[in-house]
Amino acid sequence: MKAIVTGAAGFIGFHVARRLASEGFDVIAIDNLNDYYPVALKEARLSALDGLSNVRFARGNIADPQGLSIAIGDDVDADIIVHLAAQAGVRYSVENPAAYVDANVHGQVTIFEQALKMPKRPPVVYASSSSVYGANTKVPFSENDPVDHPVSVYAATKRSAELLAHSYRHVHKIASTGLRFFTVYGPYGRPDMAPWLFTDAILQGKPIKVYNHGHMQRDFTFIDDIVSGVYGAVNRILAHPEGTAPVYNLGNNKPVALMRFIEIIENACGREAIKQFEPMPPADVKCTYADIDLASRDLGFSPATTLEQGIPLFVEWFRGYNGR
């Protein structure tokens, strides 16, 4: 079977492309290699895919319909599109909202239009985010909860992408399902996220910023568990295109206090952090916590990696990648 994976040089996209290839899919890996964070990391991920004979990388921008079609190939008819490309980062969306609308809203339309042009009209599994829950106080967050009050432009664009997917299901019968990821971490992770930022600072003896004076919780989810959830969603929608839920939560179902998270990184690094306590940024939320009953039932999703297990694996990879 043929799969198109967008954002294949990104953190989650790279791991998903590698998993699909290992399961026998022919993978067309798409990425525009933008410089939101150092391109060298994206190139390192692509290098890890180079030895796979059933992966073809093509550079393309999901917000450019013509360029995307050329990158994929006019004669390509995919069985599944796994759309993971996006402009990521909650806090950066305050500074550059247009980039988020372009990639996450316009890009979503482009991907569904691409699916419409293909004879098989392939289903789309796409990345959403726990950020859509905004400042909801009822926990754990359930797919049935209202998501009408996003607190960042990033969250608003991700919710917009979900609504666009709904309209394409209704009007054009393109099967799709969105995956609301909860704070994904692990090897090859993003430099703008807390595991990387904290590990880097601790190993260099630099201070870390602890927002909301440490009174925050996150449902940290290890990358291998996320990939298993994505693969479960791919299998489900291929077997039962009309029998998938519009969205699924993919989280660890075990929120961890920020101060405990820092302690685990300190233990893995063998050093104590220099903590600089700060107020909470306006685009952040105090807690994320995934209800995963639906994903467990439909996708066989069962996260198995605790933070105590996953953070040392990330720190070990980080040390090797950064020479520390």
From TrEMBL:
Keyword Mitochondrion applies: no
Domain of life: Bacteria
NAD-dependent epimerase/dehydratase domain: residues covered: 4-251
Gene3D superfamilies assigned to the protein according to its UniProt record, in alphabetical order: NAD(P)-binding Rossmann-like Domain
Gene Ontology molecular functions: UDP-glucuronate 4-epimerase activity
Pfam families linked: Epimerase
InterPro entries: Epimerase_deHydtase, NAD(P)-bd_dom_sf
Keyword annotations: Isomerase, NAD
Enzyme Commission numbers on file: 5.1.3.6
Identification of the protein by name: UDP-glucuronate 4-epimerase
